[in-house]
UniProtKB/TrEMBL annotation:
Protein's name in the database: EEP domain-containing protein
Domain Endonuclease/exonuclease/phosphatase: 14-243
Signal peptide: none
GO CC term (a single one): membrane
Amino acid sequence: MTDTGASTPTLTVMTVNIHKGFTSFNRKFMLHELRDAVRKVGADVVFLQEVMGTNGRHRNDPADTPHYEFLADEIWPQYAYGRNMVSTKGHHGNAVMSKFPIVHHQNHDVSVLGPEKRGLLHCILEIPGTGHQVHAVCVHLGLAESHRRQQLDLLCELVRGEVPDDAPLIVAGDFNDWRRRAHSILEDGVGLKEVFVSAYGESARTFPSRFPMLSLDRIYVRNASVHLPVVLPRKPWSHLSDHAPLAAEIHL
């Protein structure tokens, strides 16, 4: 984290759907390469989706280590995990890795009837020496538009009920919102603004990562500003995940 002045501390964030550590179409297990790539970004807070909460299903898995712990290693001493989907091969969900203390976290089940299990992982981060508490919500919404609409309404309810009106808030993750309907819902409902829309006029295309066509992944903020949000380069990310990661510098 850097501080551009006594009243404007900043932190960098990134978000990426890691597809349970596999490349597109589950062709190759890439968790070790993913860890190296995430480290090189150097973000203060990392939002992860589709992260295994067990040691996984592949012979190259780090033994007895949940994937978010393996990725965090010694770089992000604080992490939280929200289990969403359970199968015979283990369970996966959302995770937040942080260089700052996570003083509270709660996973909110926003699954709609059917096989898809989705969650909103809400974390409160304490930023040392600033007096700031930052609320962070890691999001992975459903594939069906009717489900996403209900889940966006539940996200708005979470923000109204659990986030103080004046607190810095970052909401990031995989919204599966290829029609870009979430922007107006979240801005009108709880004052969240998408960082690429604010900076460049439209949200970033992130899927599929090799030739991005759809805007599925997002970073929204409230009571904060953003400097130069970026889609991370295709090399090495296009062979590490089917989603291109996003990163941004947040000014509190």
